[in-house]
Design goal:
Strand content: 5-15%
Largest sheet: 7 strands, mixed
Bound molecules: pyridoxal-5'-phosphate
Structural class: alpha/beta
Strand order of the largest sheet: 4-10-9-8-7-5-6
Radius of gyration: 22 Å
Helix content: 25-40%
Order of helices and strands: HEEEHHEHEHEHEHEEEHHHEEHEH
Number of strands: 13
Length: about 425
């Protein structure tokens, strides 16, 4: 792997610009979804050529230390040797076949072993498959329609949960009631609004809404949610899609002693291979076996083999501790730089998934100046979304990141002055 990171802003983006131009002609909006660089500063590439470990290279050959990890899927580093070997071995045998491979049972057994509340597993492709299927199972189990979700929380891009209302009908949202994360009184109110018809309460392990400070869960809130679900016969659904395996080698609320009934997983469980999992307790197994969910590629064997290798390596490599350590180094360094530079920041969330905001920055002008400069110095972070550490980040990567963020703070101070 090349160890050179451009120290001076000399990056060219001509191949990227050409691809963007071609894309605008054949891809709506030029790009869509969470990977669109349209709203990012101009220093960000849209298109990447390759990736390895903690590094990515754009289509112009510029190298970056990657703190977005493909928005979460990469937890062990890009192209982790054990995951790639397991995927290659399975691919040599077959992938999308006449039926699933043994790897499906291996993956289900491993997840049931690792995640305390789980007695069974089902698989899909994306996080939206997993969250939506959890709610379908909860409805099948309870015979009720309504679902309580935290206002502003992201659970996927299906009509019931997408963040834009274009193309969404009121009917798509008719069975939702909203509460405020960490506010149990608001859950009581939403339950009343649901009038005894609540099939599920869906919640993420901590509040990680894009554009806002992150907020860790109040353990009392988690316990009260569990008690409330038990009292009212409502399913507690934990959306682990983003946080799963980054906070804990198992369910994210296990350290709190709170077990959900159903949990939705994707992103990190396959280290980049397309797989999602729905995990549940025995009480929901019958309902899970009655619903009909499937997809042409839901039974692919390669991602299942990759998931087995990934989840095994997360434990073998003590990945959670590694991300905690390097994430803490990164966050401590950024806090120090901001204090020394007289720039006010709000750096929140767990060290493995930190989020940086500049207060009074509604138009993201400061955030974009900061992140654009950081990208120009060879480090990918994000002005609105939380970042992701992987177990592949080295101390040297953190040093490089801090060199880049130092330049970022200088750029913010030069443009906006000291706070
Ligand atoms: C918490 C959470 N739930 C669900 C999803 C949806 O996952 P996907 O984009 O794979 O459908 C995401 C994606 O970012 C997520 O962060």
């Amino acid at each position: 792997m090349t160890e050179t990171i451009n120290q001076t802003p000399t990056r060219t983006r001509t191949n990227d610009a050409r691809l963007r131009q071609r894309a605008r002609a054949v891809i709506p909006g030029g790009m869509y979804g969470h990977m669109s660089a349209n709203a990012l500063p101009p220093e960000y590439p849209q298109f990447y050529q390759r990736s390895e470990g903690s590094h990515v290279w754009d289509v112009d050959g510029n190298e970056y230390v990657d703190f977005m990890c493909s928005f979460g899927p990469i937890i062990l580093g890009h192209k982790h040797p054990k995951v790639e070997a397991a995927a290659a071995a399975q691919r040599a045998d077959g992938d999308t076949q006449a039926g699933p491979a043994a790897a499906m049972v291996d993956a289900a057994e491993l997840l049931v072993d690792r995640v305390a509340h789980a007695d069974w597993a089902m698989f899909g492709k994306n996080g939206t498959d997993a969250t939506t299927t959890c709610l379908t199972i909860a409805r099948a189990a309870t015979g009720r329609a309504k679902v309580l979700a935290a206002a502003g929380a992201y659970h996927g891009s299906a009509p019931w949960c997408t963040i834009r209302m274009d193309g969404v009908t009121p009917d798509d949202r008719a069975n939702l009631a909203y509460y405020t994360f960490n506010d149990i009184a608001s859950v009581h109110r939403a339950l009343e609004e649901a009038g005894g018809e609540a099939a599920a309460i869906i919640v993420s392990p901590f509040r990680h809404d894009a554009g806002f400070d992150e907020e860790l869960v109040d353990p009392r809130f988690a316990r009260e949610l569990r008690a409330l679900c038990d009292r009212t016969g409502t399913a507690l659904v934990l959306d682990e899609v983003r946080a799963g395996f980054r906070l804990n080698d198992g369910g994210s609320w296990e350290p709190l002693g709170v077990a959900p009934d159903l949990s939705a997983w994707s992103k990190a469980i396959g280290n980049g291979y397309p797989i999602a999992a729905i995990l549940g307790s025995a009480a929901f197994s019958d309902a899970a076996s009655r619903i009909f969910v499937t997809g042409s590629f839901w039974f692919q064997a390669v991602p299942m083999a990759a998931a087995v290798a990934t989840i095994t390596a997360i434990r073998e490599e003590d990945a959670v501790a590694a991300m905690q350590r390097t994430g803490t180094m990164l966050c401590d360094g950024i806090e120090r730089q901001a204090a020394e530079g007289g720039v006010r920041i709000s750096l929140t969330g767990p060290p493995a998934m930190p989020n940086l905001r500049f207060p009074d920055d509604a138009d993201l002008a400061k955030g974009k100046t900061f992140c654009g400069t950081v990208a120009e110095h060879g480090v990918i972070i994000h002005p609105r979304h939380n970042w992701f550490l992987s177990a592949a980040h080295s101390d040297r990567d953190i040093e490089r990141a801090l060199e880049a963020t130092s330049a970022g703070f200088q750029a913010v101070r030069a443009r906006f002055g000291e706070d």
